[in-house]
Write a structure and sequence with these properties.
Blueprint: H1 4-27, E1 36-38, E2 44-46, E3 59-65, E4 68-74, H2 98-102, H3 111-119, H4 123-144
Antiparallel strand pairs: 1-2, 3-4
Helix pairs in contact: 3-4
């Protein structure tokens, strides 16, 4: 049995595959009808051979980080998902301040988004705001199928909008 990183990769792959199997069972698709293709941006999608009237534009997306695996599926619209363990420890926390650690990604954010990251009251708050915004951006480009080739600064999210899942009360 593999150990360490290899074992973790196998576990994540198994969990993602089991969710895809569950999705196929719920959607009543036969495995023989499933043909996965990729967009020019390399996003996987269910190809035309497996289309069903109840799912004319079936899309799915998978994300994982740490102990979390998320699968999103949508019968009609593009979907993208990203999971981020917002409170996870920084890999370099003891070497640098959080803002310096994140500075290399500054150009991925609009001025308003970055102001909200900088304006959080402490490093934990800055990490939560950053993680929420980054996850929104990553899910967006995954839904589009562009991946990180899309200039992330071209889209703006507001993690603190009224009724948002990312408001401090929801944390």
């Amino acid at each position: 049995m593999p150990t360490g990183t290899a074992s973790r990769g196998i576990e994540i792959t198994y969990r993602a595959n089991s969710r895809v199997d569950t999705l196929l069972n719920l959607s009543k698709l036969d495995l023989d009808d499933v043909r996965v293709a990729r967009t020019r941006g390399k996003k996987p999608y269910l190809a035309a051979a497996a289309k069903r009237p109840w799912a004319p534009n079936f899309n799915f997306n998978i994300s994982h980080e740490g102990d979390y695996v998320v699968l999103a599926a949508e019968p009609d619209a593009l979907c993208g998902v990203d999971v981020c363990a917002a409170d996870g420890p920084s890999r370099r926390a003891e070497q640098t301040s959080l803002l310096r650690e994140l500075e290399s990604l500054r150009d991925c954010f609009t001025d308003g988004e970055w102001a909200r990251v900088e304006g959080a009251p402490d490093d934990a708050g800055r990490r939560r705001v950053f993680s929420a915004l980054w996850s929104c951006k990553e899910a967006y480009v995954k839904a589009r199928g562009d991946g990180l080739a899309f200039p992330l600064r071209r889209v703006e999210f507001d993690e603190a909008a009224p009724g948002s899942w990312a408001t401090p009360a929801a944390w």
